[in-house]
Write a sequence for this structure.
C-alpha cells in the first residue's frame, strides 16, 4: 500500500508494465551497463480521482543537460503553440498594462517565441540546459531551474506577479503537484490565469493508448482530478478545451477561486467522465486487459513478419515508444531501426530494448516493407508527408486504438 500523491489516501497499483528505463534515455552501447530501470506501475485514487505512477525516477535522471526532447521537431506542434499563444493573448491579456507571461517547462521556446515576437514581457523556466540554450539563443528569457515555491518568490521579487502562467505537457511531469500549485498561486496576480494542457485520461482510456504512461508522466489528468487537486490551493477550474495534440489532450483554465465565472464546459466534461467510468477502479482493470491484448497482438504480428523475412522499421523514436517496446518485448530482432528527425537521438540506441535510432534519410533511401508508427499522434502530418512510401507498396502498422496494418 502506498499513499496518493495528492490526497494521501491509501492506493494500490492496478497493473505493472514491468521494469522500464528512462523514456528519453537514448544511449550509446558503452552506457548499456549502467542503464537505470524502475518499475512502471500506475495506480488510481478513487478518493480524488488522480491517475498516477507509484514510482517515479529522480527528476535529475530525466531532465538534464542531455535531454533528448525538442518540442520544435514537429511542424504541427509549431502551429499548435502559435495558436495557443494567440488564444492566451486574445482571451486573457488584451487591455492589460504591460502583461507578464511565465511558462513552466518552456523547452526550446516553441510557445514563448510567439510572446517575444509580440513584445510581451516573458520568462521561461526550463531545467534541461541543452533545450533551454536553444531558446536563449533566440533571445527568449529562460531560467534553467526546477520550479518551486522558492523560485516563484524570487521571480515575483524580480519581475512582479504574472498575468498568466502557462504550461504544456509539464504539470503532469512534476511529482509534488501540491508544491507546484502553491508556487503558481504565489506567482499569479489575483486576477491572473493559469493555463495548461496535458495528455487527457479520457482519451488514453478510450484509445488504450497506454504508451502515454512513462516515467515523465507521473500523472494523467482528468477535469475531475485537476479541479480537486488545485481547489486545495485556492485555484478554480473555470474552463476546459479538448486538444488533438499528443493523441488527445485537454487544456485547463484556472483562476483564483471566485474571480471569474465557471463555464458550462467544466460540468459537462465532468459528467462525461462519470459516464465513461473514469472514477471507477473497474475501468482500470478493463484498461489493463486491453493493454495485454494490444501487447499480444503487436508481438504476434511482428513475430509473424520476422518469420516471413519482412523488413520492419519504426517511425519516430518517441518517449511513448519506450513503454511499448519494453512492455511488449520488441527489440532489434523485430524492428531493424527507428527513423527519427531529432539529431541528438540519431546514432543512439532506444532505452531498454536498444533498437538503433537512425536519420530519417535511411528510411526514405531504403524504404522497409512495414513502418511501425510509434509517432501515431502525428499520423495526419506523417501520412501526408509519406505518400510515396505507401504508393511504393509500404504498409503502416499502428497500435492505437488497435493493432492494425494499413494496407
Ligand atoms: P512526440 O510526438 O513528442 O512524442 P513523445 O512525447 O512520445 O516523445 O515525438 C515525436 C518524435 O517523432 C520526435 O522524436 C520526432 C519524431 N518525428 C519524426 O521523426 N518525423 C516526423 O515527421 C515527426 C512528426 C516526428
Amino acid at each position: 500500500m502506498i499513499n496518493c500523491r495528492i490526497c494521501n489516501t491509501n492506493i494500490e497499483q492496478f497493473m505493472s508494465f514491468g521494469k522500464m528505463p528512462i523514456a528519453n534515455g537514448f544511449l550509446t552501447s558503452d552506457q548499456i551497463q549502467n542503464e537505470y530501470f524502475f518499475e512502471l506501475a500506475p495506480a488510481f485514487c478513487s478518493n480524488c480521482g488522480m491517475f498516477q505512477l507509484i514510482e517515479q525516477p529522480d527528476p535529475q535522471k530525466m531532465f538534464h543537460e542531455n535531454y533528448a526532447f525538442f518540442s520544435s521537431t514537429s511542424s504541427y506542434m509549431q502551429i499548435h503553440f502559435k495558436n495557443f499563444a494567440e488564444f492566451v493573448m486574445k482571451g486573457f491579456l488584451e487591455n492589460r498594462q504591460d502583461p507578464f507571461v511565465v511558462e513552466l517547462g518552456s523547452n526550446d521556446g516553441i510557445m514563448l517565441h510567439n510572446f517575444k515576437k509580440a513584445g510581451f514581457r516573458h520568462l521561461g523556466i526550463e531545467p534541461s540546459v541543452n533545450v533551454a540554450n536553444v531558446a536563449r539563443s533566440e533571445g527568449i528569457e529562460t531560467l534553467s531551474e526546477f520550479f518551486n515555491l522558492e523560485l516563484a518568490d524570487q521571480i515575483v521579487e524580480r519581475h512582479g506577479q504574472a498575468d498568466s502562467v502557462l504550461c504544456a505537457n509539464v504539470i503532469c511531469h512534476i511529482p509534488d503537484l501540491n508544491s507546484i500549485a502553491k508556487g503558481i498561486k504565489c506567482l499569479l496576480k489575483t486576477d491572473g490565469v493559469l493555463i495548461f494542457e496535458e495528455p487527457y485520461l479520457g482519451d488514453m482510456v478510450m484509445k488504450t493508448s497506454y504508451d502515454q504512461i512513462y516515467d515523465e508522466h507521473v500523472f494523467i489528468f482528468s477535469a475531475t482530478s485537476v479541479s480537486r487537486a488545485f481547489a486545495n490551493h485556492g485555484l478554480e477550474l473555470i474552463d476546459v478545451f479538448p486538444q488533438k495534440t499528443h493523441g488527445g489532450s485537454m487544456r485547463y483554465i484556472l483562476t483564483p477561486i471566485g474571480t471569474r465565472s465557471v463555464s458550462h464546459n467544466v460540468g459537462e466534461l465532468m459528467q462525461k467522465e462519470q459516464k465513461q467510468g473514469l472514477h471507477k477502479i473497474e475501468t482500470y482493470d478493463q484498461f489493463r486487459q486491453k493493454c495485454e491484448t494490444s501487447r499480444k497482438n503487436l508481438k504476434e504480428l511482428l513475430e509473424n513478419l520476422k518469420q516471413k523475412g519482412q523488413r520492419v522499421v519504426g517511425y519516430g523514436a518517441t518517449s511513448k515508444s519506450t513503454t511499448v517496446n519494453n512492455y511488449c518485448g520488441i527489440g532489434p530482432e523485430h524492428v531493424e531501426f527507428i527513423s527519427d528527425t531529432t539529431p541528438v537521438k540519431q546514432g543512439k540506441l532506444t532505452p531498454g530494448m536498444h533498437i538503433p535510432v537512425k536519420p530519417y534519410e535511411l528510411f526514405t533511401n531504403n524504404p522497409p516493407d512495414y513502418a511501425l508508427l510509434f509517432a501515431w499522434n502525428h499520423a495526419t502530418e506523417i501520412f501526408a508527408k509519406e505518400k510515396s512510401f505507401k504508393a511504393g507498396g509500404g504498409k503502416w502498422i499502428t497500435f492505437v486504438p488497435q493493432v492494425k496494418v494499413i494496407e
In short: Residues 180 and 260 are 22 Å apart (CA to CA). The pocket of thymidine-5'-diphosphate is lined by residues 69, 73-74, 316-320, 340-342, 345, 360, 375, 377-378, 381-382, 385 (CB under 6 Å). The longest strand covers residues 188-199. The chain has a mean pLDDT of 95.
